[in-house]
Amino acid sequence: MHSNRSRALATGLFLGLLALLPLGGCQTLGYYAHVTRGQLEVLGKRTPVTRVMAELEPRRADDAEADLRYRRLAYTQEVLDFAERELGFRVGRRYRSFVDLDRPAVVWNVFAAPALSLSPHQWCYPIVGCAPYRGFFDVAPARRQADRLADQGLDVYVGPVSAYSTLGWFADPLLSTFIDLPEPALAELLLHELAHGEVWVPGDVAFNESFATFVGRQAAAAWRGEPAGEHDPPGDDQGPRLRMLSLLAQTRAALSRVYQGPLSEQAKLERKRALLTAAVACHDANRTLLGGSRYADLVSGLNNARLAAVTTYEDLVPAFAGLFQEVGGDWSAFLDRVRALADLPAEVRVERLRASADQQVAAAGDDQGADEVQCHAFFRHLLDGEAVGGVDDDVGRGGHRQHEGA
Q: Is 33 helix (H, G, I), strand (E, B) or coil?
């Protein structure tokens, strides 16, 4: 009986996964098999959090790691209860179990973009729509996919992922890949993933991820008891992160001007290399403001694919911050507004979000502070007079408008 039930479960999961995956081709069938095995492995290792905590309890006094794991697990359950009770999130059985994985990430995402474009390569999936990345449960096939794309002349980036959401298809577990994060980051990650279960627009990844990014930060602030609007991480992390996002926005704006300009393809490639080198120089000149070496790996491998990955998660965050302020920090009203946006045609949704983002950036004004990283001097000599003016204008508005045509 147990064997039959297990086979039935595996079949049901496999069919569910097929509904989430792209169609066509032998290579895609191999991908089906890979992600099905990976998802079944994760789900098959789930253990109720209460049982894991009971097993850790006797070891806490003499084992610092066991004590930390116990406290982190208890913390997650408090965050989940808060999300369900105070924010109205539909938590259910999500993150009430735990999986110990013997690897540093649960998934590796592959991003790609043309050599002279900031528009990311897309993979399309039934139900969830198109996305600018493809996930693998092992780093080796992710790198092989990236190598194939690089051979086609695309910029590529392989990024480790500590958590992901199945959008309520399955009861997602807590994972060893993120459970030992500092408490503020752990709360933000859990609330980010829960947000995906509240609102999801098939094919609009920028909307989905920016929404979840904002919710993670703002809801984590609410959990910490901070006032509405204070949605950035506490302590020394806030400044370096915001400044790094500013540097990346300036880099995207400068590259966009080159890509859309009249130069030959070869000249654009040369100008691209020079601009990326200038971005690294700007980072190195502002290391103190950017948290030391925190972002050194990011800028050392900076390309169109990495910039696309950052844009996916951050580009529309100011728009959702604006919506949240418009409803006075009322979570129920905010979620209703976001769901209403999700029901709109894509072009109308984008227009309204851009308007909200522009208002948020304008309201911020000079509050970004004198310590904001300014890379204009590093880029100016690489661009003609007309392009330089455009870059300054775009960056002055927070680096948002340049993506509309990218």
A: helix
